[in-house]
Design a protein that fits this description.
Layout (H helix, E strand, L loop, with lengths): L1 H6 L17 E2 L3 E8 L18 H4 L7 E8 L9 E8 L4 H4 L11 H9 L2 E10 L2 E4 L7 E3 L5 E5 L18 E3 L4 E6 L5 E5 L15 H6 L32 E4 L9 E3 L11 E4 L4 E7 L3 E3 L1 E9 L15 E8 L4 E6 L16 H6 L1 H8 L4 E2 L1 E6 L6 E5 L23 E6 L9 E9 L22 E6 L5 E5 L4 H5 L4 E5 L10 E5 L5 E7 L5 E7 L28 E7 L8
This protein binds MU-OXO-diiron (FEO) and calcium ion (CA) (3 copies).
One calcium ion binds next to strand 10 and strand 25.
Length: 582
Amino acid sequence: AHAADAAATTLGFTEVPVGYTTADAVAPGYSADVLIRWGDKVLADAPAFDPAAQTADGQRRQFGYNNDFIGYLPLPAGSDASDHGLLVVNHEYTSADMMFAGVTADTQLNEAQVAVEIAAHGQSVIEVKRSNGKWAVVEGSRYARRIDTGTTPMVLTGPAAGHDRLKTRDDATGTQVIGTINNCAGGVTPWGTVLVAEENFHGYFAGTPTGAEAANHKRYGITDEPWYQWHRFDARFNIDANPTEPNRFGWIVEIDPYDPASMPKKRTALGRMKHEAANVHVGDDGTVVVYMGDDERFEYLYRFIASAKLDRANPATARDILDDGRLSVAKFSDDGALEWLPLDWGQGPLTPANGFNSAADVLIETRRAADLLGATRMDRPEDVEPNPVTGKVYVMLTNNNKRTADQLDAANPRAKNETGQVIELTAPDGDHTASRFTWDMFLMAGKPEDGAVYGAGTTEAGQLYCPDNCAFDNKGRLWITTDQGSAAGKRQIADGVYATDTTGAGRAVPRHFYRVPTGAEMCGPCFTPDNTTLFVAVQHPGEDKGSSFDTPSTRWPDFKDGVPPRPSVVAITKADGGVIGG
Ligand code: FEO
Ligand code: CA
Ligand code: CA
Ligand code: CA
């Protein structure tokens, strides 16, 4: 079997066996070292982590909760340094029952606990350095920064900025927002910034949608049963008092980590949805194209083309390039064609007759605009990323257990889809601005009994569930990370990292490289430029049925009594210092 495996792939590692254990596991010959954990110091004056005595003031200076996206930016800027750089890390969400003693899903949190939760959202920017083969956080770095949902000012830019629907009682300009929430994945731009996605923003807002914004808020899932209790202490999160505040979330936010004083910018030209991520392709002529997924069952795949070209010799000129351009949504045909439908205000159904009185309305209600154009309803589009070697674009579709047998199409071909699929898009002659692409099913995830389809030679361990995020190495190989949710515990198969060739005999033959501890999902795959390090984010370890701060299913990575499991960034390196995956 080993000889056959070796023949079918360029990936030169022995797979990690399937498992569901309290510790993580990596392929033999590699080490997986925890770099930074929830509560560790980000700013020099941060207090030491004490799970029994958390404060918002401390959390605002410590590494936040539930690390998701990781972006690596070399130091010095513009170099390809692979032993020294900045990491920008998203802190997507918080889980009070895993963070605080004595808390269950039904507990009324107190104001201090909610303040910790708010401070544990946002981003961390850390400086990291490798010496003698091991990565460490540089203490006292001038780049170190916490971007926090409760206090960090941001600006709305682009066509919707300043529109009446973005104005609130506290902000008559419609351009000034405090913080960003539920930042899932993202992307690093070729001009040295990071794009972070605002995903499930609806879960933070309470109230009954009524009045002018009612249909809008309902389309994005706001109800009087929010996921969080922030509205009990901050009226900003109560739509009865502040009906337009949710319109200031659901955007792509651009952050310049090289300038710690810079203000993050919410780029309204990229549309408003439950953004999973945003990844940039630059054409030979400098054309900037951004691919994005809206992660919810039956939502859409999007593309943005910037109006201006990138001057590669002068990347700083791209500072505001994402403020002007054209947004489109994908319509898949069963014959393998894909059409990009432009969301142009004033064209087709996107007119005042349907309540779209300006380009801003189209951007604020991107989903409704895409509905009217007849875009293809997908099985939860997560990461969408162009392969820098081949130029093909890969779409991670994680699952959709609500799809019924009468709602199938070739791109979403399974009813009650619990396992997901990966679609490959091809731009004609590499022209990513073309209005028509073609597409192929790259793989159908799951086991054979789920209707899975892989390349020949895929092992039992390599059969993955629920593709979520991804990265490419310098050989154009696709590294997929998975998120099964609570199904991981039921299956007793942990989430992890799976690598596959995208061409040749090893095409669509995933190989299992790393797995997370119980209850966790795998996020944030990110290579250094030389591919000798793969950073990954272990998110929500211990998030199992019946697990809590007091009785966690794992105490990874500390394994100390009284210390709960801690979401952490892990640096994976090869023992001989070589390229990950060989
Ligand atoms: Fe935050 Fe789409 O997962
Ligand atoms: Ca995700
Ligand atoms: Ca990615
Ligand atoms: Ca996920």
